Known about the structure:
Elements: E1 2-7, H1 12-24, E2 28-31, H2 42-54, E3 60-65, H3 69-75, E4 83-85, H4 89-97, E5 103-107, H5 113-125, H6 132-139
The structure holds D-ribose.
Amino acid sequence: MKLVIGSDHGGYELKLELIEHLKERGFEINDIGCNSTASCDYPIYAKALTEEINSGRADLGILVCGTGIGMSMAANKVDGIRAALCHDVFSAEATRSHNNANVLCMGARVIGAGLACLIADTFVDTPFSNDERHIRRLSMFSKI
Ligand code: RB5
């Protein structure tokens, strides 16, 4: 599975911890920036990450900012993106299984690295259920 990850300055340090953790697990992970803790604009990185997903160059993405909220709002503007803000393991599992989420968003000012890595593991390890009711509900997104 190919992963893509991005952050703004608020999520930069946590992003590095997530990359190290996921690489140790053997995942290929493309970091689309930012590249320092210098102040920057999170929509730029949200957009860049969605392009990796929609092109098929990555299967799943992770976006980190201070709260995760701005990243999730920006990513969900893009057709084909189902970005889920998760700060607990239950939600990470449910959003893969029920919503077929393709982007996980987290806030570095909300949770620590240990929990963030566990949430990321759960997200990438949980398949979509493929249940008919979930497919039907997701197909309704395009009509909203
Ligand atoms: C940056 O200060 C902060 O606004 C950003 O990281 C994020 O939390 C936005 O939603």
